[in-house]
Design goal:
The structure holds two protein chains of two kinds. Chain A is an alpha/beta fold. Chain A has 14 helices and 18 strands. Chain A has a single domain, classed as Alkaline Phosphatase, subunit A. Among the domains of chain B are: 124 residues, no CATH class; 83 residues, Immunoglobulins (Immunoglobulin-like), CATH 2.60.40.10; 122 residues, no CATH class; 163 residues, no CATH class. Classes of the chains: A alpha/beta, B alpha+beta.
Chain lengths: 477, 762
């Protein structure tokens, strides 16, 4: 049982599989998950890049996803006054915002707490990873787990709706995921055309490169150009039909594909070596830090929907935040991952403000749920980072959708405060309870999408609301 | 005031597809946003005699509907309606609505003491803040109607109100020159013989907004696209349709000869609308087109020669007959049907039943089993997958509701989903229709077998019934309004349903499949979407649809004959190149509408051209993508996913993505699998570079394989030049490939498979 991906748990067959087929399948696909951009306007790429005027950037979002569910009691919603069967070992520390306390795991965010807002009264109703993720990401009210989402996630919805907007003068895809959440979300009936352009791997590695973006080998670029010229010479059908509709759209995709493949600009947007060394250090020289730096770099270059997930080895043995005692010694695991997490999130938020992106870019940090306030003890199923040898009893916390915290920054929102509160044990919101629908409506609101009045037809032609129940959280807009 | 009504209105099941995120959101947007409630300023055309008291059912409800109050996004929203004020969707349940108005909201919605301060009025008129905005101006007659009703004591007149019999639209048909207008009048006809002009209160909707739009007051504005368009008029749950033809009015002087009823109907429609058809395409184009459409593959050079070089006047018909004999015909259409029949791999152990089911579909098509028999075998399947493969459908489609919805949509072209929870907004289907249809599947018994995941399906002895979830009424089986009540406990009700379907007089069964097949060949159904057949979505060419239906029934539900009669028509053989006048035509088939090759066909075609092979797990070497039995190969073959091969989850063919995307362009240009195919050892580029044949011959062969035609002189010389020109290093010192090298041939093949001529059937 030393393989971390096969650490089985009776309670939770969820995110342990994160490292398996699903993701690797996507890596193999390479371009397969690539989102489509808006159809018109791509032909104007050249002219757009030629003209000196800075392009007007649309409102955009970076969602930092903590798959598996992060313990709220051990991070943003400490409960120092409850019994040790709940409390956990971490000290409570004050932040730069009077009255708002974190645990000692987050000293850096505590220092910049005036630049973020913590929503402590987030809650949803699904106890499993699949249904919980689907509630948070696609607004599906179902509480039972199912293998595939029934509704498109907010990212593909936003991509789809924006693709109907005015032309986009940017060669980059609208929706990019850098190690994004992939398992329990997706385009559902919107189709793969609206999936993200997906970048996998550890951007901190010197060997890291993004395939199919700005080919670096001049031979390849030359050959592609030659082929493309030859193709244009041979395509007689091209001239026979008028270019409205489908054929026109195809032309534009082809032009954009060429641009993505051959333009040095697109390569640069993903190229972290263009960043100052100090900036790279500031985010943390590890996968999470560099993922978040890449996210910032991409939204700055015009990506509008950006997701990245904090998973993998930095999480500990099972590669995610699912800290049942069978998976992790939760407190060891939290301590292990806290530094990289705290540093990366802090750097992203500070950077957003320092670079003047704080009105344009909303940063959201969340997982699908929180973790049980009451600590449980079970035997570990395997030894590894954040977990004792198999069989040793260790503390853990289980799934807790009834109350959890998430972090918001930028997006022009008022920061330096917390919204809502949970009861004395952190079990349920006692103030300003916000649902998954509210969470989604808030995100849509920032993107300029009227979620109360936006419907998308499913495959049966039935108009389906993008948020069934939920209103933008007034304090976050 | 005593109230005779029970408050049992909220019994719809939780977690149902209708109760979840979907809500009761139908058509909400148009009403809630589009109508700014200013219709009240129009000249009143419905003065009410002061002596007649205001009727809740006939006066108040239409006002609420037209103002959009009971649209899905507003107070007909799922569960509780907006802010707890709940109305039935589009006013189908006046009795419930009355209860909500009168009894809930602590009685503030209607104030008997001070009618004008009733919330329903103060909110709707914006005197009290209303999230839905101002829906009724205080000066409007509609406001006055509501006020009058409350003053009269807010009585419910459900049982006594004059019954609305029908809604009529005047005129009901006509010809609209491009850019012209037509005012429609909606007339309500009541049981007591009275009629009322309800234009102000009726709802209007165009089925094709690119052809004609309609204002909320019923003013139709024709656009410039020629064809047939209909305007749906709705009032109090009843619908009526205005159909207009918008002529192009061009000279139609040359029309191909007619080969039968299809050509008669199609060409006479073009003449009527003044849309000149493109000419008949040449032999090479026809061979490629029909081979792709019937057998799902490119034609071989031998096939090409057999037609192009022949002087036989019947050579095209003969070629079609050969294609229909081929096993590839069965492969291609089995691929189509198994997707809609949800042959899906959820678990590795599904493989046995999926293969068995696929084979059953394919064999049925190959031996040309009559369509009604095939559907009967599926619908009434009993036993185990091993003994009777169509049973597998009941494994995929387990729930009774899903069974009836799939059967209705797939085999009858009727979408019943809406009627599960409320009256279909555009149709006559009620919840009784839904549940009485469900009753056919109420006696489907299943028990586990020794094979994991496989159930035995049997008829559970008993009288088939199903309960209307709302009223609780127990219903006997009825098929879309036709009750079938002689079913005994020993008889499998599904067989009765199959009998009803295959009756030559059945108005749905043949129509649904001929329309579906028409779409397969012509890209657009005569009714479109092809599985949304209803009075309010009429066919673009009714005579043609009726002719196909008749022919199909007379042939004994012969699917191959259906294909044959379609593809041998001259209508199918028109050129795809538009002439000066018909490029705007999108629904009259005045030219062949090009279609992108579907994922499987495109992959096979690239294999054919490059000489590469795609291998699929657990399938014999050489299995083509078009012959894959289920969806499980999509994950391992990203090409299929990127180009939209469905996951066999929906009964709707729209699950297959046929639109282009950036991912597709990138994939064709640069993905590893495509590059590997080009460079296959022993593949086309490799062999051609080693060939001793003259360069011209090699290029010609390549063209014939990829495009099904020989190159023009210019194309030939262009390609030969590219293959043979000396390599010259550019400033960066980069040079690609020596003359006539495999790399040069790879470039040429890359260019060919990236052209539209290759990617499309045209």
């Amino acid at each position: 049982m030393s393989d971390p991906f096969h650490a089985s748990s009776v309670r939770c067959a969820g995110p342990q599989s994160f490292g398996q087929g699903g993701r690797r399948g996507f890596i193999k696909m390479g371009l397969a998950g690539f989102a489509s951009l808006s159809l018109p306007g791509l032909l104007r790429l050249k002219s757009a890049t030629a003209s000196a005027g800075a392009p007007k950037l649309k409102k955009s979002i970076i969602m930092v996803w903590k798959p598996g569910g992060c313990s709220h009691l051990d991070t943003y919603d400490p409960k120092p006054d409850i019994g040790s069967e709940y409390r956990g070992p971490f000290k409570t520390i004050s932040t730069s915002v009077p009255g708002m306390n974190f645990t000692e795991l987050l000293p850096m965010q505590a220092r910049i707490a005036d630049k973020l807002t913590v929503l402590r009264s987030m809650h949803q109703t699904a106890p499993g990873h699949p249904a919980g993720s689907m509630q948070m990401l696609s607004g599906d009210p179902e509480t039972r787990d199912k293998p595939k989402p029934k509704y498109p996630d907010w990212m593909t919805v936003a991509n789809y709706l924006r693709s109907k907007d005015a032309p986009r003068d940017n060669p980059l895809p609208r929706y990019v995921g850098v190690n994004p959440p992939l398992e329990y979300n997706g385009p559902a009936y919107l189709g793969d055309a609206y999936s993200p352009f997906t970048v996998m791997g550890d951007p901190n590695l010197p060997t890291f490169s993004v395939p199919n973006i700005g080919l670096s080998d001049p031979n390849e670029v030359k050959r592609l150009s030659q082929r493309s010229t030859l193709r244009q010479r041979l395509d007689t059908l091209d001239r026979a039909f008028d270019k409205q509709g489908e054929l026109g759209a195809l032309d534009q995709f082809e032009t954009q594909a060429m641009s993505l493949l051959t333009s040095p600009l697109t390569r640069e947007a993903f190229d972290l070596t263009k960043e100052d060394e100090r900036t790279r250090d500031r985010y943390g020289r590890n996968a999470w830090g560099q993922q978040l730096l890449m996210a910032r770099r991409l939204v700055e270059a015009g990506v509008e929907v950006m997701t990245t997930s904090m998973s993998g080895p930095l999480c500990g043995r099972v590669g995610n935040w699912d800290d049942h005692a069978v998976n992790h010694h939760i407190f060891d695991a939290m301590r292990y991952r806290a530094q990289a997490y705290d540093q990366a999130v802090t750097a992203l938020i500070e950077d957003i403000y320092e670079r003047g992106l704080d009105q344009q870019v909303l940063v959201v940090v969340t997982g699908e749920f929180g973790r049980t306030p009451k600590i449980e003890h079970s035997p570990s199923t395997g030894e590894g980072i954040g977990s004792g040898p198999a069989g040793t009893t260790q503390p853990g916390r289980d799934h807790w959708p009834r109350a959890f915290s998430n972090v918001w920054a930028g997006g022009g929102i008022q920061t330096g405060r917390f919204i809502g509160a949970t009861d004395k044990r952190g079990e349920d919101p006692i103030e300003r309870a916000c649902s998954a629908g509210d969470f989604l409506a808030t995100i849509y609101h920032h993107l300029g999408i009227d979620s109360a009045n936006t419907f998308i037809n499913d495959l049966n032609g039935r108009p389906t609301p993008i948020v069934d129940r939920g209103r933008p959280i007034a304090e976050l807009i | 005031m005593s109230n005779p009504f029970s408050l049992q209105y909220g019994s719809a099941p939780k977690g149902d597809s209708c109760q979840g995120i979907l809500g009761h959101a139908l058509v909400a947007l148009a009403f809630c946003i589009g109508i700014s409630c200013f219709y009240g300023r129009l000249p009143a055309n419905e003065p009410k005699s002061p002596s007649v008291s205001v009727s809740f059912v006939n006066d108040v409800m239409p006002v609420l509907t037209k103002a959009g109050c009971n649209s899905g996004v507003c107070h007909a929203k799922a569960v509780n309606g907006q802010n707890g004020f709940r109305l039935s969707l589009l006013g189908f349940e006046p009795q419930d609505d009355y209860v909500h108005l009168l009894k809930e909201g602590r009685g503030r919605r209607l104030s008997m003491a001070s009618p004008a301060s009733s919330l329903i009025l103060s909110k709707a008129s914006g005197q009290v803040p209303h999230r839905g905005g101002v829906r009724l101006s205080k000066e409007s007659t509609e406001y006055a109607t509501l006020l009058g009703w409350i003053r009269d004591g807010a009585k419910y007149d459900g049982p006594t109100a004059t019954k609305l019999l029908s809604i009529q639209v005047q005129p009901d048909r006509g010809t609209l020159p491009p850019k012209s207008q037509q005012q429609l009048t909606a007339i309500a006809v009541y049981a007591d013989g009275t009629q009322r002009d309800v234009t102000k209160l009726a709802l209007f909707e165009s089925n094709e907004k690119s052809m004609a739009e309609v204002s909320e007051h019923g003013l139709v504005q024709a656009m410039e696209l020629p064809g047939r368009v209909s305007i749906m008029v709705r009032y109090q749950g009843l619908v009526s349709v205005y159909s207009a033809s918008i002529p192009l009015g061009a000279m139609v002087d040359s029309i191909p000869a007619s080969k039968g009823f299809i050509d008669d109907a199609l060409f006479s429609n073009l003449k009527e609308l003044g849309i000149p058809p493109s000419p008949i395409c040449d032999d090479a184009t026809f061979v490629r087109r029909v081979t792709l459409d019937v057998a799902g593959r490119l034609p071989t050079t031998q096939e090409l020669d057999s037609v192009v070089g022949s002087t036989d006047p019947n050579k095209r018909d003969t070629f079609v007959a050969k294609l229909l004999q081929s096993s590839e015909y069965a492969d291609f259409f089995a691929n189509k049907w198994t997707a809609m029949l949800k042959n899906r791999r959820d678990d590795a152990s599904d493989i046995t039943s999926n293969f068995a089911f696929y084979s059953w579909v394919r064999d049925s098509l190959l031996q040309n089993k009559p369509y009604d028999q095939m559907v009967r075998e599926l619908l009434a399947a009993t036993g185990t997958v091993q003994s009777n493969p169509p049973v597998a459908w009941y494994k995929r489609v387990k729930e009774q509701k899903q069974q009836l919805e799939d059967v209705a949509q797939l085999f009858l072209g009727v979408r019943m989903q809406c009627a599960q929870c409320h009256h279909h907004p555009f149709e006559k289907w009620s919840q009784d229709d839904y549940y009485s249809f469900a009753a056919f599947f109420s006696q489907v018994g299943r028990k586990p077998t020794s094979t994991r995941g496989e159930d035995m399906i049997f008829h559970k002895r008993g009288i088939a019934t199903a309960a209307n979830i709302k009223t609780g009424t127990v219903l006997k089986p009825a098929a879309l309004g036709t009750s079938i009540d002689s079913i005994t406990a020993d008889q499998d009700p599904r067989l009765h349903l199959a009998n009803w379907m295959s009756d030559p007089k059945n108005p749905f069964f043949a129509k649904a499949v001929v329309n579906r097949y028409w779409k397969h060949f012509f890209r657009r159904g005569l009714i479109d979407p092809e599985d949304d057949i209803r009075d309010t979505n009429p066919p673009s060419n009714p005579e043609l649809l009726a002719g196909l239906e008749k022919h199909f029934i007379a042939s004994g539900f012969d699917l191959k004959e259906l294909v044959r009669v379609i593809v041998t028509s001259n209508a199918y053989q028109l050129s795809s190149v538009p002439n000066q006048s018909n490029s705007a035509d999108q629904q009259n088939y005045s030219r062949y509408y090009h279609k992108r090759l579907q994922a499987e066909v495109l992959l096979d075609s690239i294999d054919d051209v490059t000489g590469a092979r795609t291998d699929f797990q657990n399938l014999p070497t050489g299995t083509r993508a078009v012959a894959l039995p289920d969806n499980s190969y999509n994950n391992a073959t990203p090409f299929l996913k990127v180009f939209g091969r469905p996951e066999n989850e929906s009964v709707c063919e729209c699950e297959r993505t046929q639109s282009s995307s950036l991912a597709q362009s990138l994939h064709l240009m640069n993905a590893g699998d495509v590059k590997a195919k080009l460079a296959t050892a022993g593949g086309r580029a490799d062999l051609m570079s080693k060939s001793q044949k003259p360069m011209e011959e090699r290029v010609t062969e390549l063209y014939r394989i990829a495009f099904g035609r020989s190159p023009s002189a210019a194309e030939l010389s262009g390609a030969v030049d590219y293959l043979t020109e000396p390599s010259s290093a550019d400033a960066s010192g980069v040079s690609v490939g020596q003359p006539a090298s495999p790399e040069r041939f790879q470039d040429l093949i890359w260019a060919l498979i990236n052209t539209k001529e290759f990617l499309f059937n045209h």
